[in-house]
Amino acid sequence: MSDNQREAGTIILDPTHASFAPEETVHDLGATHFIGIGGAGMSVLAEMLHEQGVEVDGSDREPSAKTDRLQSLGITVEFGQQAKNVEGKNTVVFSSAIKPDNPEIVAAHEAGERIVHRSDILALLMNAKRAVTVAGAHGKTTTSSMLAHILVNAGEGELADPSYAIGGSIQGKDGAILDGGHAGKGNVLVAEADESDGSFAKYHPQIAIITNSEADHLDHYGTQDNYRAAFVDHAGHATKAVIMCGDDEGNLAVLRALDATVAGRTIVYSTRNAAELGDLNGATLVRIESESETAESGAEHFTLHIPGGLIGEEERRIAVTLTVPGIHNARNASAAIIAAALLGMDVERASAAVTSFLGAARRFQVRGTVRQVTVVDDYAHHPTEIAALLDAARRRYPQSKIRVIFQPHLFSRTRFFSSEFAQALAKTDDVIVTGIFPAREKQEDFPDVTPATIVDEALKLEHEPAKDWIRGVEDMHTAAQMMVMRAHHGDVIFTVGAGDITQMDEVILHALEAHRWDCEG
Question: Does the N-terminal or the C-terminal CB of the chain have fewer CB atoms within 10 Å?
């Protein structure tokens, strides 16, 4: 019988159920099969187990860059999910996208194989390392990538060669894309902690970073209060320190709900001073000061003001320069630098290392420029993320028209935040909203949710030119062609969303090559 038990004849897959005892390790897994091994979070874990000598294979619906990489490492991947794929396996790993009627789940259950959620594997990996988790509605991938980058490039001794499990890829030099998973020989593991299904309750890191607690995933949590309560619980599991952004009101609510002992080992980083923040419940404040970005340079500058007693007796002011734009990245870098310092790295060494960070893949990633039109790709899929992206775009390209093709992610999120999406998108000059990327959801369960759900909210806003700045186009290929026809020299086109909208970048670049316009644009 599996850890996810049968109840009244039904297989129950509970991502919050902890499947392993504290003393167990990855070497207790036996032959391990990943269902949906090509997923961003799954492929990273499969690779890490493979690097540690665990027998790993998996299945997915179709080939992808992730499955190509896994196969190049010697990991078998079957395409199409069927019962025979789990024959002889000891452990079968599922993600929250997998349903109980999946043929591999059914076969594994009938065979009595252990069925575990992906978070159980990550929790196992943490048990043997000094773990740092990064949780939050947005900023997780960039912040965890920054910390991994600092440790990889500046770590010495046990801080060198860290392990990391990041739900995305990292931009490397000369256009190279580095995978988000690595099992290093050092004693640190940096892990992105996904809060979407509540499974991060299993993690007990040394250090927990919480970038924000702005309501999301209400399809799982139901209410904002429940969502924040999950972060209170998560913070309580950190054995050494909690690092939280104080510029987020949700985080401040979480901070004030913490037990006094947990709050006493919490560090708040913020662009605001103590008087503006109010009650910090005994937490220590690290200020982000003198934040600025030189127009069109993309270089972000700020100073970290670290009080005495946190990483030494004397207070410190550390100058930081980033090559990724936006105040949101100043916040992300602050969390990463503080975490590196708490792990034992010299804070100035950490701040110098983050300068060479080029960004997580699909985070303000410039894909090319054709005929003076620049195409940028970004993973933003929550209203606050989109607002931060567009603010950064205005600072990077102050003289350009900013045009956006936005693919909403999840019908439930689109319904919950349609008004907020409209307000965020109003920061741009021209928007096409495409059909919604369903991920784990089905259109028939949300028949009233379409691109018009956001467009109708946007048309209620006072925005010029009225009724001309936003439209809905179901097919993203059509949207890409339309945007090219609307573009002029000097414009910037952003593809935005957590789905497959990124595929349109090449379509747009090729269409720009073929597009005929007069010299004046």
Answer: N
Q: Phi first, then psi: give them for residue 368, nearest 5 degrees.
A: 155, 165
Is residue 304 predicted with pLDDT exceeding 60? yes
Pairing, β 10-11 against β 177-178: unpaired
Cβ 31 vs Cβ 55: under 8 Å: yes
pLDDT digits (tens, 9 = 90+) for 434-473: 999 998 789 999 999 999 999 999 999 987 665 689 999 9
Residues 92-113: b if buried by 16+ CB within 10 A, e if exposed:
bbbbbbbeeebbbbebbbeeeb
Which residues 6+ apart lie within 8 Å of 185 measured at CB?
A: 160, 161
For this structure, is 240 an active site residue? no
**Taking a C-beta distance cutoff of 8 angstroms, is the pair 167, 194 a contact?**
yes
- The answer to whether 140 is a known catalytic residue is yes
pLDDT of residue 232: 96
Which of 75-79, 160-164, 170-174, 474-478 bottoms out in mean pLDDT, i.e. has the lowest? Answer: 170-174
502 to each of 52, 134, 375, 385, 387, how far by Cα in Å? 32, 24, 11, 16, 19
Parallel/antiparallel/unpaired status of strands 91-94 and 114-117: parallel
pLDDT tier at 224, thresholds 50, 70, 90: confident
> Alpha-carbon distance 37 to 58, whole Å?
5
Among residues 32, 91, 133, 141, the one annotated as catalytic is: 141
Locate the DSSP E strands across 271-364: 284-293, 300-306, 316-322
Cα–Cα distance for residue pair 107/130, rounded to 1 Å = 36
Q: Which is catalytic among the residues 129, 140, 202, 427?
A: 140
Contact 103, 83 (CB under 8 A): yes
| Cα gap 169→421, rounded to integer Å | 26
Residue 66 annotated to the active site: no
Catalytic one of 47, 192, 195, 457: 192
CA distances from 308 to 51, 101, 285, 311, 312 (A): 41, 56, 11, 7, 6
Q: Are 243 and 249 in contact (CB under 8 A)?
A: no
Cα(172)–Cα(163) distance, integer angstroms: 17
Query: How many helices and strands (H and E) does the chain possess?
Result: 18, 25
Query: How far apart (Å, rounded) are the C-alpha atoms in residues 304 and 271?
Result: 10
Distance CA 449, CA 413 (A): 10
| Residue 66 contacts residue 39 (beta carbons within 8 Å) | yes
